[in-house]
């Protein structure tokens, strides 16, 4: 049997086809349909306020008209730098309706990292929070020459009056100082959303045009931009809609994934285009709030990382819920242990956890467990419609591995990215042609059983998963190498016993000779302080170990295998 035999097809749910027709439309086209299909239905639930699709349509149209009037359209890029609040999706919809591409920016980025993404993407427009303006943008205002316009918002802009007033009085709503920036326009987005021209611009957007430039960690240096076309996004929306049988206007989504993460962004985009309501969760650590949203709005689809599901198991308000409305709990971005799944399903209902697999480069979804056909707990499921997957040897990426044996997961399908932004070498390494198809070499190690179910065995060689976020060791190592006391270093992941599927970042450091007699406690604090200043919090090492000498391989490379703890 070969991968081309597609053994997974016999496990598709009834009615799911091997090949489905992907509409020859842009995401802008299906977004317009979703916004206008049920104007009076709720689109967004946020802190006690409901925004209807009519509201979302009108406000995003005003922003789109404003952007078009400023001369922006197809080929231009807008950055969105906000938490999961209404302005994020309003801005995203407006950017798409203007024909622009969007680049989602992590709230955790330090100024140096923010400057890189703005400059690398060529963003001319930035939509941000007033707090982030003060904390990050102001510091790099002279380092982002392509940026022309900045639109700022406040977390409380769309809160109900009572909550907003109380929050302001108690100083619970953060506010940042806004100042003019020479050579750039700075203005509040709320004025445009309330008073702008509500006529959306007429724009011709082709399926092959760029829809998103999503940044993902790179094994060499700073993150690289993944170019996703409108065809990629429309294909993945259609694949998910068919697979999970989403009916327009029927579902209510609730997710702790941030919108800057590809999983969160796709959920938000799919919900808008299918006229589905969504509960906005600005702080996923507030499990009591999540439970309240599920109860208040009768959520039907939960989408989260395993660690959040495990946190919810410890939340009394969640454990007391009636889960009869919840039809699926989608889990991705990190492994979900078999025991944890069983415990979670004992509460929400057997068979409701749907493990999936994907990555930014595949828009993001490639596989999913079926809903009706047998699920295999511990597996990330089977390839979606129009998707081929095979396991290739890790060493060369040219030889198919037998079923059941480990190798690199390779994906082919309409959801596979166009390439890495301005990085032809990295693109040619990741996207390779064989069997007449273009395959994404994911860097993830896994195996496929004879039924076509896929099991993740390991992640990309030097990648860590920290609370659902990817951390590439090389990027952290490059920051550490700038510290005078560090002669040589290696970043490895240590399993986090408190969060199965998540790791703790550990730095192993060989000190420069002139620092050997210095106080180790003080050196450790200096190293961590430098990391905190130059990296997102989840990338900062939690453990620093000093060693006499970093072990090297025969060819002089750091031998991380020798540093990692033995597998239990």
> DSSP helix count?
17
Question: What is the name of the CATH architecture of the domain at 49-205?
Answer: 3-Layer(aba) Sandwich
CATH class of the domain at 49-205: Alpha Beta
N- to C-terminal separation?
A: 33 Å
Radius of gyration: 23 Å
Q: What are the segments in which pLDDT stays under 50 over at least 5 consecutive residues?
A: none
**What would you call the shape?**
globular
Helicity range:
25-40%
The total of beta strands comes to 27
Given helix and strand content, the structural type is alpha/beta
Q: Give the CATH topology of the domain at 49-205.
A: Rossmann fold
Describe the structure.
The chain is globular. Among the domains are: 49-205, Rossmann fold, CATH 3.40.50; 463-563, ANL, C-terminal domain (GMP Synthetase, Chain A, domain 3, 2-Layer Sandwich), CATH 3.30.300.30. α1 crosses α2 (53-69), α1 (27-37) packs across α9 and α2 crosses α3. 48% of the residues are buried. It has 568 residues and is of the alpha/beta class. The strands form 6 sheets. A 9-stranded mixed beta sheet has the order 2-1-11-10-12-13-14-15-16, sandwiched between helices. β10 (252-255), α9 (262-273) and β11 (277-279) form a beta-alpha-beta unit. Helix content is 30%, strand content 24%.
């Amino acid at each position: 049997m070969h991968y081309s035999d597609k053994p997974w097809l016999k496990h598709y749910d009834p009615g799911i086809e091997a090949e489905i027709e992907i509409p020859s439309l842009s995401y802008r086209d299906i977004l317009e349909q979703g916004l206008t299909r049920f104007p009076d239905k709720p689109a967004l639930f946020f802190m006690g306020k409901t925004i209807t699709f009519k509201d979302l349509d009108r406000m995003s149209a005003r922003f789109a008209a404003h952007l078009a009037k400023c001369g922006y359209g197809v080929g231009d890029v807008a950055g969105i730098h906000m938490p999961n609040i209404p302005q994020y999706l309003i801005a995203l919809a407006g950017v798409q309706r203007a024909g622009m591409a969007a680049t989602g920016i992590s709230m955790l980025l330090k100024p140096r990292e923010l400057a890189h993404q703005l400059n690398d993407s060529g963003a001319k427009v930035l939509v941000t929070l007033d707090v982030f303006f003060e904390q990050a943008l102001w510091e790099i205002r002279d380092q982002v020459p392509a940026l022309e316009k900045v639109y700022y918002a406040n977390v409380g802009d769309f809160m109900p009056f009572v909550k907003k007033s109380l929050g302001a009085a108690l100083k619970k709503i953060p506010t940042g100082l806004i100042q003019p920036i020479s050579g750039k326009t700075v203005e509040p987005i709320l004025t445009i959303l309330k008073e702008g021209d509500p006529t959306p611009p007429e724009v011709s957007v082709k399926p092959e045009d760029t829809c998103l430039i999503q940044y993902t960690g790179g094994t060499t240096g700073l993150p690289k931009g993944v170019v996703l076309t409108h065809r990629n996004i429309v294909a993945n929306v259609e694949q998910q809609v068919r697979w999970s049988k989403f009916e327009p206007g029927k579902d209510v989504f609730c997710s702790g994934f941030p919108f800057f993460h590809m999983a969160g962004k796709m959920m938000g985009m799919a919900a808008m285009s299918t006229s589905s309501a969504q509960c906005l969760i600005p702080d996923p650590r507030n499990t009591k709030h999540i439970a309240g949203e599920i109860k208040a709005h009768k959520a039907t689809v939960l989408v989260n990382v395993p660690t959040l599901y495990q946190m919810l198991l410890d939340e009394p308000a969640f454990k007391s819920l009636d889960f009869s409305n919840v039809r699926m709990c989608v889990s991705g971005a990190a492994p979900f242990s078999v025991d944890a799944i069983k415990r979670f399903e004992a509460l929400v209902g057997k068979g409701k956890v749907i493990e999936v697999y994907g990555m930014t480069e595949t828009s993001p979804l490639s596989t999913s467990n079926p809903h009706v056909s047998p699920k295999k707990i511990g597996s990330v499921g089977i390839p979606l419609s129009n998707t081929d997957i095979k396991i290739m040897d890790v060493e060369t990426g040219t030889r198919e591995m037998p079923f059941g044996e480990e190798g690199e997961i390779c994906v082919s399908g309409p959801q596979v990215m166009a390439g890495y932004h301005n990085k032809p070498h990295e693109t040619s390494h990741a996207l390779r042609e064989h069997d007449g198809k273009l395959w994404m070499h994911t860097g993830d190690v896994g195996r496929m059983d004879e039924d076509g179910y896929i099991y993740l065995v390991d992640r990309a060689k030097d990648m860590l998963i920290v609370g659902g976020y990817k951390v590439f060791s090389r990027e952290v190592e490059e920051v550490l190498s700038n510290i005078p006391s560090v002669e040589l270093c290696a970043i490895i992941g240590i399993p986090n016993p408190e969060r199965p599927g998540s790791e703790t970042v550990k730095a192993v450091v060989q000190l420069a000779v002139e620092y050997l007699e210095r106080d180790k406690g003080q050196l450790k604090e200096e190293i961590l302080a430098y990391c905190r200043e130059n990296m997102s919090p989840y990338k900062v090492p939690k453990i620093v170990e000093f060693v006499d000498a970093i072990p090297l391989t025969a060819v002089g490379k750091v031998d991380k295998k020798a540093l990692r703890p033995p597998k239990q």
